[in-house]
Amino acid sequence: xxxxxxxxxxxxxxxxxxxxxxxxxxxxxxxxxxxxxxxxxxxxxxxxxxxxxxxxxxxxxxxxxxxxxxxxxxxxxxxxxxxxxxxxxxxxxxxxxxxxxxxxxxxxxxxxxxxxxxxxxxxxxxxxxxxxxxxxxxxxxxxxxxxxxxxxxxxxxxxxxxxxxxxxxxxxxxxxxxxxxxxxxxxxxxxxxxxxxxxxxxxxxxxxxxxxxxx
Length: 215
Known about the structure:
Blueprint: E1 2-6, H1 24-36, E2 40-45, H2 65-71, H3 74-81, E3 84-85, E4 96-99, H4 113-124, E5 129-132, E6 155-156, H5 161-166, H6 177-183, E7 187-188, E8 198-201, E9 204-207
Parallel strand pairs: 1-2, 1-4, 2-3, 4-5, 5-9, 6-7
Antiparallel strand pairs: 8-9
């Protein structure tokens, strides 16, 4: 099995002057699930090279056994430092695609035509696609073959409005994931803030928050 993990290249948290990027747990936990399954992993990002890491995801309170394992793993950190440019890849070469979250994807991947085509092609090929936390927001411009929103009528989840309020970024992010998925006609559901929750609709799999990364 070959899995493509797509990371953000965006590092600015709106106009706050603070930096953002991908959330470490949302990469590390699935990375080792894939590794332990014996899958071949490719890391990609729009710009290639080292993607930006949300510094808050390295704070002690947000560290996990898997994040510590990842940061101490030379093979993993080398792969992360040399992500492949997303526009150089073909969906045909992978069996599944996974998008970690973090706030960065809301700015770049959510507006990236290459990413949208990758998602559309993957699902139309009958392959599984998974996105966690903020990453389901990347679906905002993806379409079905008839031109309707890809999430329309599908069961989905993603970072909740109240979780965004909890990190005090409601007025900073370009859009709220929960609101966006609902406005596109998705059948959005959630459970309590910060609790693991995963929704599967056919080959589309979405997770609510960082705790949902491994499941």
